[in-house]
Amino acid sequence: MGAQLSYDIAHLIGATVLMAGFSLLYQRRLFAVLNTFAFQALALAAAAAWQAHIQHAPHLYVTAAIALIFKAVIVPIALHWLVEQLGIHRNVETAMSIGWTMMAGVALVALSILLVLPVTANATALTRESLALAMSVVLLGLLMMITRRNAVTQVVGFMALENGLILAAVSAKGMPLVVEISVAFSVLVAMTLFGIFFFRIRERFDTLDLADLETHRGDRQ
Amino acid sequence: MSAVLWQVLQIVLVIGISPLITGWVRLVKSRLNGRIGASPFQPYRDVYRLLQKEAVVAHSASWVFRAAPYVTFGSVWLAASIVPAFTTNLFLAQAADLIALVALLGVARFWTALAGMDIGTSFGGLGASREMMIASLAEPAMLMVTFSLSLISGTTAPAQIIAFILSGGVGIEVSLGLALAALVMVAIAENGRIPIDNPATHLELTMVHEAMVLEYSGRHLALMEGAGMVRLTLFMALIGGLFAPWGMAQPGDGALAVLVGLGAFLAKCFILATALGVFETSIAKMRVFRYADFLGGALLLGLLATIFLYVSEAV
């Protein structure tokens, strides 16, 4: 197998993760958001497995397995369960229109490419491009956290951001396994905490729309 | 000499198999809906029946209304005959590039919209305004796809793009995948398929293309329907040719290669038509106000394709 082909496939899987990030921004229904997130995690697992194959780094297979089991299966199922328990499977409230959000997303991708390419001038082509992709995914996750008003979708944005970090980690050579495992577990813990918070927020304010919290914080009269 | 021959064959082929492709999509949809469905050859009979009928024209119609079917069909047919379907060795291949193709489709759309407004009924105007909204979003996306393809291959002529891809100069390129997704979305919009428009509907609130041609009858309607069928074939040839050009005959190849190209083209058309039928059955039509998001997404995919091209170049 030629180096060009393995490079192209890594590029393609990375771009799939990024496209899933865009389609997260595009979705309007809560369950569709969760399914898209599961798809992104699946693509991430594929990316990690492919990097393990071309870097001859068997510990990355563990990363791929963690991504597959936790992020593509357990977290989406848990969020599905949460949403059903909370009874909020309706449309997602967005703070900005979908069109403007998507445009901001493209601008962020262009920004991350412009930023990463000059900084990593000495790295290999594969690393540079993967880093550009990973940084775009991170920024799209941040954008999702900003533009969504529902707490559940903000958490999905956080998880998508974390997917971007893992993508960056697997494409950089020499990342120790301990770091990846601890990141994966901290996300799982965070997810549990978020679940508890959802129930607490709803119990107290009868809604998961974070705009309603602002009055209690004193931002708005 | 052979270029002229293949060009004539291409002109005859696109009009010859277009009704069959449309009929096949309808058959796939019927079967998936649990109906038996009409034979895939039914559109030929429909067009023949319409051609036998008298064309009834309203008193308020001007010459625009009568000329529109001919102009629309003519420009779509011309556009379809410059897209390489089975061989790139076409007489008109040098004459027209993808930008000219977009312009020809634009002419067809412009005249259809004019005809919709000319007759003075409310549905015609409604359909025309919606069609123009879709066009204003779909055309930039189509041009963006054209630009990213021409940045990869250094030309906007479809024949040379195909030759470049067939020569193996490009690997698995992310930009190509993004451009393909954008082109598929544009093709859905341009052909008035679900989720943008429902080609089978006669419910006035939801229709776009049907609303504009509502007042046509007889040979005029046959031409309008024929233009729609040829446009569908055109986009299948474009998608199959630009993104999966395998089997396509090149200049200098013999008649055998052209036969292989013909077989490959028919196979691609049937795969794409089946996929279209499955896709249309599995999703619902969108609200009109969401078209902007869908086609804006296509435009952004085209834009991303160009951005990624820049990354690949820079690395």
Output the number of helix runs of chain A: 8
Most extensive interface, residues per chain? A-B, 24 and 20 residues
Order of helices and strands of chain A: HHHHHHHH
Number of strands of chain A: 0
List keywords for this structure.
heterodimer, A: 221 residues, mainly alpha, 8 helices, B: 315 residues
Set out the fold topology.
The complex is a heterodimer of chains A (221) and B (315).
Chain A: H1 3-26, H2 30-55, H3 59-86, H4 98-119, H5 125-147, H6 151-171, H7 177-205, H8 214-217
Helix pairs in contact in A: 1-2, 1-5, 1-6, 2-3, 2-6, 3-7, 4-5, 5-6, 6-7
Chain B: H1 2-32, H2 42-52, H3 63-82, H4 98-118, H5 122-153, H6 158-166, H7 174-190, H8 209-212, H9 218-243, H10 255-282, H11 291-314
Please tell me about this protein's structure:
The complex is a heterodimer of chains A (221) and B (315). Chain A is mostly helical. Chain A contains eight helices and no strands. Chain A is globular, with a radius of gyration of 18 Å. The termini of chain A are far apart. The model of chain A has no long low-confidence stretch (mean pLDDT 81). Chain B is mostly helical and 315 residues long. Chain B is 71% helix and 0% strand. Chain B has helices spanning 2-32, 42-52, 63-82, 98-118, 122-153, 158-166, 174-190, 209-212, 218-243, 255-282, 291-314. In chain B, α7 runs antiparallel to α11 (291-314). The longest helix of chain B has 32 residues, at 122-153. Chain B starts with a helix and ends with a helix. The chains are: A mainly alpha (221), B mainly alpha (315). The A-B interface holds A 4-5, 8-9, 11-12, 15, 19, 22, 26, 98-99, 102-103, 105-106, 109-110, 113, 117, 125, 128-129, 132 and B 171-174, 177-178, 292-293, 296-297, 300, 303-304, 307-308, 310-312, 314-315.
